[in-house]
């Protein structure tokens, strides 16, 4: 469907995209989900990534989202300390029965009760996240979910401005989000507001490539001193590519980051996007993991695809 020119939104409207992944998630056993996850983590580890954020968001019901977080807790036990996992509860999409209702109804009836159950069971997420976009969640839904997270003292993240500029960047700054993800459609004004905040802008260039969308217009953000990170957004619907370095190398032709910005975006700034201050740079006392490249110059790390 994608190769025939159908958009992300059109595929979703026909039951594809996230809703298709949800069906697969629900039908897959706990054992198979854990096995798949471990194989994918091992692959990322071989490519030099030792800190990974994993989000829920493919269950959509209270029962399935709690199941997802329970499985992530089990996964974390099995891969630690070789890999650090950060676990995020993501309010991702609206089930069919909520499509014609205010998106805040889902947050109040499913999203918040699922978080309450996670906390009751001792499955506290490291972050919460929500997808703010047309036909997904609006500002009212975001405010309701973030109010709950703030009350529970859980750091906030947001998926926003992926297809339309709904001023998600401004909302991210207002709610003091740890990171704002996507930002493909964010305006210069939105990036300026984000640069003046403590929120890290996490760009997901693999998604732009896969969906054939323009890259995020980050030049004004970087010039204004904003903190920029790059992530793979490894997911079933819009970027089934887990090689972070590869995505960063290829996309930088469009992003035009210099070497310092490029390296920082997948090390120091990436750690800041996860509220981590003990890794991502070389200094005595920091948590370290090293990857050895047979290159004569640092520049080759960016230049040699």
Describe this entry's structure for a reader.
This protein has 305 residues and is an alpha/beta fold. It has two domains: 19-155, Alpha-Beta Barrel (TIM Barrel); 156-305, TIM Barrel (Alpha-Beta Barrel). The chain is built from 14 helices and seven strands. It has a seven-stranded parallel β-sheet with strand order 1-2-3-4-5-6-7. Helix 3 packs across helix 4, helix 4 packs across helix 5 and helix 7 runs parallel beside helix 8. The protein starts with 7 loop residues before the first helix and ends with a helix.
Would you spell out the secondary-structure blueprint of this structure?
Elements (H helix, E strand, L loop, with lengths): L7 H6 L4 H10 L2 H17 L4 E5 L6 H18 L4 E8 L11 H18 L6 E6 L6 H13 L5 E4 L7 H7 L4 E4 L5 H8 L4 E4 L1 H7 L7 H5 L4 E3 L13 H12 L3 H7 L2 H5 L26 H5 L2
Parallel strand pairs: 1-2, 2-3, 3-4, 4-5, 5-6, 6-7
Features:
single chain, 305 residues, TIM Barrel, seven-stranded parallel β-sheet, 14 helices, 7 strands, 45% helix, 11% strand
Short description:
Helix content is 45%, strand content 11%.
Total domain units: 2
The general outline is globular
CATH superfamily of the largest domain: Metal-dependent hydrolases
The residue-averaged pLDDT reads 94
Please identify the structural class as seen in this structure. alpha/beta
